């Protein structure tokens, strides 16, 4: 007797909200293209169940001072370009990512402590050099973040940058700057679904529309808490599909930053032989971290190694092929 | 469907007799609901209730065992689609494929490497799980020989790959009573393969590329023929459809209690890969989403180590978080004047603190005390992170040989304990660090001094 | 003329007459009564700023047609009587309105000093079987012919005159016997304590706990004590009438040794910490007894019995038992059924021979106080699925019905008892017990217990300030004070941001009364622990909050708990208000019940045996529920629809009135 199987389809009440990064000239910015993420009405890549209108996208992360603390394996891939942020941005753009993520590390007290105006000019020149939409991260020190990001938001008004990070302890100033200048806020929470939702609500309560918020639920690298961020991403996606408007923002995961912090990616000597080849290990570490985050529901992965960008793009192709 | 504690309670005698070892019938019912107790512990449960409870308790995905030696692959018996809902119980077996067309030396060498591969991660040895032997030669004798060779080199469980029943029988003969996974029964050969599975008392993989209806029909026929330990291979040409089918199989089994597909699954990542890296990526997806056995074509420690790490991560019980090993951890290149911090061995606590120390760029000693995997406040409340435990961690760590100062930084949440720690550690100065990890960087840079 | 008999002006203007002042204004149709009153110069109280939140602007429509928005503050009966909220009602025609000239807040005198009979929560024939009995005996003096010894002589008379057999006594009591017998010509009162509960052991011997000269049977005293981690409450009870004669309360003297039970246990493990803690609680109780005795002219040795209900740690410490193992896995107390001890053994200054009965407990973290609570709340008798919440430091929660009971404890901290909060205090005269904050001006209005100048804020006041500050937008959903608000009430003090509830000039101690951001965090943590506790408890048996048919609330908030505000802050689930009932201090009530009715002790045992204890620290969902509840009202906003719609409408009205919504 043939057995007939009825495809088990979940009836979801919600979907991930669409967020568009970047603005073209016609839209008040200077980008040559824009990127829309989100919109999924199902779990990652389950095309049989609901529409997945937009591919997850890749951002390449660069920074405005030469990252001497980066893993040698990672620095080797970029060579000298890392010394000049504009050249770096151009080279990154040649690899075909969807977005460029610019870290304003130079504003950090430990890395030059540059002032807001100078840093804002850096952002302007990167915008001038590449046509892709931009993600901009402050140096991660609350006071400097507020100072620098406000200025950046002002001089780039209308560009629809994604600006971060807004955390529960420090979000008002950055959100207000996004609100006033037409940008997108990145809401960061420490691997916790509830806190993520809380910061989303607080930001939205300030008047920033929901389609101008991205969630960064904090990424755990492979072997360093990956399972936590994996489950948080899954829970956020489930919750948005179940119709919770306050968790329906697309997610952004700083995969490269975390994966290249792992001992496996950094250390070449004095580690077990079973870890394999050092030159390749970091790339795989980053790639596997990104793969699993995508599978759990990441909409934007921020990567660092050119080879990982290629592998992940191919993976996304594979999973989006109809 | 699983019953709730209250539903089970209604089927119990409600006498609160305590003979089951639980203080009340409700407590016992809740233990049953969470599968932390056996119904047989209740001496007074009625036969009716027993029948009702047992049928509700049958696992929707069958537990299948591959191998007969010390090292077995146990897969199935999963209860959830998402690990946060409870946990994933049986991690997929990762096996490496050899072909009987390879030279005996090449086979022997690879099998040796796979068998020997072992590396420690967070206190656990992680290893590969088996060897798949493929009949690529088309010759039964060659296949049997290859199986024999593999078997002589390893005690790992085997997967035998051949579509031809006679060849498979030769291979099974060579495998002896090691209960390898027979791959695979198809709509053409299933009766013979089912007979072999019974004869050799081995689990049987069921392959179909005719969608889930085809697979379910086949699996149903084989079950009815008396083979109950099945592993499913819903083959499809695209990677995303593979994810779709595997998701559907899992859902049908768990949510619809659909018996014909209530079995673990096997995957071949190389089907969708054009390079070893791509195979690794697909394998990673298979680990996260529902594979029971993953057959790799490539063995390379650089690629295998991340997969095994991922498997360990994904199959960690979210309810019992990983503990890190109590020890001294170093960041940067700490010297005698570098700060010494202490915290608990809950992995997330460790990762958070470690990340912040790392970000600060300050070379630091981090002492991890054994708090049985609890976070700082929980451990404090439960007496697992008290002055005595902290003193013990300091004393057993030999940190005094490494630092010149005698200053220990406590997590801000247990500031109240600093006096007691000072009593336990004469000659030490106890400083109070920040409550939240995010402030560690500022603390190390701005506040900490060795004196 | 319309059917109300009031003329409608053709030009759409309405005449509004305010009584009793007789002031008249003309207003457009659709004018808010409140605005009309302002124009007429009639004072209407609007502590909330006219947002329909406080319900204090009630007026009486004597004649005419109005349209009112529905709100929670009016009962159907009031609406039928013509009562309306001035801030939520518009005129449709000519209207005559009666406005109470000045708001009258008649407060009952504080409970502390009132004598009142507390109704026994459950049926009990307390006279049938009292534990303490007094017998006045006139005894034949001994003679050479009848040289029976003193004690046997007394016993003989007890049997002959009172029918009491089988009496024993301690040496302490016997020592006094010869003198007392002869003091008043062999007229004595014997005080007997007998366990006559039907516990299956047959008749028990009676203990002679005192012999007094003369007839002392006109009075008989007992005390019921609730030993809270933070607050201790004692009821002085007339055992002859079962009336509660007086109530006194004080903070537990152990409070300086730590806020919560974990800290107390840790303290007990250091040096002579344990005996220090015992001495502290004994002193607290003795001080309360002295206060009660003094106020009611009762000599403490006249008090013959005491019942205490406390959590397991408090009971252990009070009885001098080492609580160490309560804290350590697997969390085992010494005993759940402590034996009766004599007052002299503990240094309690009632009759030294008086028995002290401590309530049985369920486990390490669910103590006799909650058994007492369940007993006095009647939860165990109800067919309804009942949730019982004791909002105390060691917040205990019970779910169940007559068939089953499950319980857990969540460490909420002492915030709702006013401790650990900068200007917090117990619910006694001088405590601010309710607050309203004007949504437009952010100015507060408050009510003080006893109509005194305020001294601090008690639990109910803290609860209402949190709710009001939240709803009016002074604090955000994360509990942070909006420092950008333009009001002198918000400032950054030495302890961080704070909101001034009362200026120094208004207060008893001439210092500002404030609520700091740290206080707010404490309160939010406390409410989150409790909300998470009952959420986990409800989920653990596979039911949902919506299935719960009644919610009984106990705790030391004060005289009442404002359900509406408790919902607004997410302490209680957003459910119809008629499902809630505030019971006050049920632990003390339970102690009182077993004091006057000893049969209840068997019931207490039964309840303790039936309760299933859920260890939250072993439950994986607790942390998730807790973090989720660490938000106002809750991270899951859909679980609080009425709060959400209140916030939305407040925002809307602010936008309409032109007040900018602060960001």
Describe the structure in your own words:
The complex is a heterotrimer of chains A (322), B (451) and C (663). Chain A contains eleven helices and ten strands. Chain A has helices spanning 72-78, 85-94, 116-129, 142-155, 172-181, 193-205, 226-241, 255-259, 263-266, 278-296, 306-320, and strands at 19-21, 35-37, 57-63, 99-103, 134-137, 162-166, 184-188, 213-216, 252-253, 300-303. Chain A has an eight-stranded parallel beta sheet. In chain A, helix 6 (193-205) links the parallel strand 7 (184-188) and strand 8. In chain A, helix 4 runs parallel beside helix 5 (172-181). The mean pLDDT of chain B is 91. The longest helix of chain B has 17 residues, at 239-255. Chain B is globular, with a radius of gyration of 27 Å. By secondary structure, chain C is an alpha/beta fold. Chain C folds into five domains: 13-98, Beta-grasp domain (Ubiquitin-like (UB roll), Roll); 113-213, Ubiquitin-like (UB roll) (Roll), CATH 3.10.20.880; 227-358, Domain of unknown function (DUF4445) (Nucleotidyltransferase, domain 5), CATH 3.30.420; 371-414 and 524-646, Nucleotidyltransferase, domain 5 (2-Layer Sandwich), CATH 3.30.420; 418-511, no CATH class. Chain C contains 17 helices and 27 strands. In chain C, helix 10 (368-377) crosses helix 15. Chain C is elongated. The chains are: A alpha/beta (322), B alpha/beta (451), C alpha/beta (663).
